[in-house]
Structure to design on (336 residues):
């Protein structure tokens, strides 16, 4: 009898108010009934065994209030955790905001279509219908249509107002995938951006503007600096860290190195150009590079070419034969 009372108290006070616990007890009810029958049969075998079981059942009845108190404390703790969770706070914040949006399907569709045309979002009629339909079950899409019904001087003002990652996606990409579920929508945006940012090679791009231009040309997007950085920060939040050009400044160590390179370049620019002559093969050869291995035929061709003055020819001859115009024994005199 005590077991029956304990089961009734336990079921009414605890299990009945907890759906999960109720389902588990319901599945195990045949086992409990069988256990009760076995205990009743066992009681026939001796008063001692019956007294022992009775003591256990009595103890269970006495402990029932404490079990109930423990269960209540657990419920309070779980409720506190739920209220402090980010998801609960977002839902609560959404419910507190007063959004007065028309319930008419044609009017909502007209709002999205007008906004799509004004800012060239490239939404198809099917995608507009999906957004309108999703707005009746999703607060995020409802908020999107509500904000689309406002006036903005620039599209960037609309992007800044809320849900930057979603509005960046709608504005930048010519081809989009619209989902009723906002979490799947976030996954779509993440996967799309990862496919693009994975192609960025910081070594081949000299600036972020260069990266943006390359992406826009390749994927037909319309990123600007603002939307690009929104996408970059969104990926960082999702633990995707992509490198951008300009992060590594080790190529130029200090200002003195730059000044040194600039001075060398300036010296080269101001240097007097070397004199050349045209060989029979048509190649220009500096005078200083002419060695003593030149033949008489080549020397004659140089004289006949007319590209050298008499003094230059004398210098070349002296270089070949080692003569000196100031040495009387050399027998070499300047050519008139």
């Amino acid at each position: 009898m005590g077991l029956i009372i304990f089961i009734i108290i336990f079921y009414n006070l605890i299990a009945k108010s907890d759906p999960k616990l109720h389902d588990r007890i319901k599945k195990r009810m045949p086992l409990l009934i069988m256990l009760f029958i076995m205990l009743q049969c066992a009681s026939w075998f001796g008063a001692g065994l019956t007294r022992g079981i009775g003591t256990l059942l009595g103890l269970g009845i006495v402990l029932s209030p404490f079990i109930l108190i423990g269960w209540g404390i657990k419920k309070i703790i779980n409720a506190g955790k739920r209220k402090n969770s980010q998801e609960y706070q977002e839902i609560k914040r959404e419910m507190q905001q007063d959004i007065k949006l028309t319930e008419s399907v044609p009017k909502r569709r007209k709002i999205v279509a007008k906004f799509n045309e004004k800012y060239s979002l490239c939404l198809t009629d099917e995608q507009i219908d999906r957004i309108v339909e999703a707005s009746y079950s999703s607060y995020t899409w409802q908020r999107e249509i509500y904000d689309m019904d406002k006036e903005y001087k620039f599209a960037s003002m609309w992007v800044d107002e809320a849900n930057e990652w979603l509005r960046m996606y709608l504005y930048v990409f010519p081809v989009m995938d619209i989902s009723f579920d906002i979490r799947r929508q976030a996954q779509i945006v993440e996967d799309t951006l990862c496919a693009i940012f994975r192609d960025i090679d910081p070594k081949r791009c000299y600036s972020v503007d260069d990266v943006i231009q390359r992406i826009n040309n390749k994927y037909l997007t319309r990123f600007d600096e603002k939307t690009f950085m929104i996408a970059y920060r969104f990926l960082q939040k999702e633990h995707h860290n992509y490198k951008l050009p300009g992060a590594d400044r080790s190529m130029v160590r200090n200002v003195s190195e730059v000044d040194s390179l600039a001075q060398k370049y300036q010296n080269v620019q101001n240097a007097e150009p070397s004199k050349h002559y045209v060989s029979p093969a048509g190649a220009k050869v500096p005078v200083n590079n002419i060695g003593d291995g030149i033949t008489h035929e080549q020397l004659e061709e140089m004289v006949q070419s007319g590209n050298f003055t008499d003094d230059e020819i004398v210098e070349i001859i002296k270089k070949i034969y080692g003569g000196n115009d100031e040495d009387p024994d050399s027998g070499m005199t300047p050519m008139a």
